[in-house]
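Handout for the seminar on molecular recognition.
Each group receives one record of this type.
Step one: identify the two inputs.
Step two: read the structure output and locate the region that could contact zinc ion.
Step three: write two sentences on what you found, then compare them with the reference statements printed after the record.
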Amino acid sequence: MFAETGLTALRALAVKLTNFRCYPSLEISMDSDLVLITGHNGAGKTSILEAVSVISSLKSFRGAKDQTMVQWSQDFYSIQLRYRISAGEEEVRLAYGKNPGTSGPMQRKITLNREQVIKSADLLGRFRSVVFSPDDISIVDSAPGVRRKFFDLILSTMYPAYFSALRHYQKSLDMRSSLLKSGEKRADVFDAIESEMAIHGASLQAYRLEFAKKYSQPFGEYIEQISGGKDSWTLVYRPSVEGGEQTEIFRAAMQSRRGKDFVVKQNTAGVQRDLWKIENPQSGQDLSDIASQGQKRTAALSLKMSQYAYYTRVTRQIPVLLIDDVLNELDLSRRKQFIQFLHKTGQAIVTTTDVTGMEDFLEERAGRTSITHYEISGDNIPVARRLL
Amino acid sequence: MSQPLERATETISSLPGIGRKSAQRIAFFLLKQSPKSFGDIMESLRTFYEESEYCSVCGALKAREEPCRFCSPGRNSTVLCVVESPSDIFAFEASGEYGGLYHVLGGVLSPLDGVGPTDLRLQELKQRIDDNAGIEEIIVATNPSVEGNATSHYIKKMFDANSLRITRIAAGLPLGSQIEYADQQMLAHSLRLRTEI
Ligand SMILES: [Zn+2]
């Protein structure tokens, strides 16, 4: 199935939810190449994808807080996901909340294979998935912070050192910002804090530079492919501190900014201000300024397809795709291209209002892939009925 | 809950690292003791409180009437290890790897908590180095946290003009870990593998 050899594919086998969103309890098996989840709008399809993705990133792709995902009037939620990796099967259980009837704080607890309690940082990177959602358009079409967050999450799940550098950079940044706010101007204190900032900042910048090279290539190619050769955009990384991947340059930049930062009482340079731009390669104009809605959609799709390509290339393992109602958003030609892409990937879990209009997709997959199909229905408490 | 129990629980839970549940357990434990053994516990705490003090030179804990054993002539006085708190000294002593002098800072730089250089025993450190030409190396053994690292940068800069070797324990200690709880072997290892800063 895969052109490249030496790759293994990750596969979700079953998910079990307790008190998660609208589900008091739900258990569905997923051991197929294609898992279709259908149901009317608001039936609770997306919540299933959301739960699976929380295992990948510890966060809701809908931006929901943990508390919001706990079913109304309940004390906790839990997500149990069983999946197959090259080494065998694993099962992760992530619970958030407190024991019923107690008044303790809401906490997250992650258990691996039913016995070993692991830290959040050790869950990242175990079960890799890529989410495709209609909201993806906001990643290409919003303020720079949204893209920074998006790439930070990918890098954090890929490199534990990046994750810890990010945390420590943030801490040292907060220290500098609290100095600026307090009006403290002692050079010796700034020297000390900036030296620490520079170590982590330079490391983050070095990771981002390397990442940008690997990510922008598939991004450009997918744009071409999805648009049928009509669009052309490049992903460009613009660090706030030029050359700041070198600790000494980063540190010197912080130092030379002090005068300005004393006046505005905030940090005006550093990796928290780095830009990920999507530009027209000829004019350098920003996508969000000049692109049509359809072009933005193409870019959003390509950004996620590149995430898939990047994961596959770096980890040698094919991630699971979680596709939330995206197909119906696309016009015919883009849709055809996207379906082409899906045929070459690993497991895909797809939600859609109904299969009508998906015949093209199913037809091409039929015979070559195994399909599981659940329909979600019910008025208050959704029920999953297996059709295939 | 009875009022004396309430009060005892509250007092005990004001101690570091003890929640209300443990505090209550400790209160009940104390109640179970014979008057004699309860008296012994109380007496030992009182003696500790009354007879302990911090060394005015290095900041280590010492008995009030005795000289500081970490400042005694028997120690290697060419090297000085800078730590955050007096309890860190016991961790280094237990590692068996170190026989030099100590200097307790009493914290680390932390602008978020309003802790600046003047809140730490840095001036005393400077004075000690100026007064003791025999000290050749300072080992900065603050915790490997952002604050601990920033403090090590500060100390490095402080002695830029001096011809001192300034090293930092690093290898083996993961960023964010606590020296006080560090495994003895790991601490010994990180002392041996200290690096210049
Ligand atoms: Zn002493």
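Reference statements: Residues B 55, 57-58, 60, 68, 70-71 surround zinc ion (CB under 6 Å). Chain A has two domains: 8-128+319-386, 139-289.
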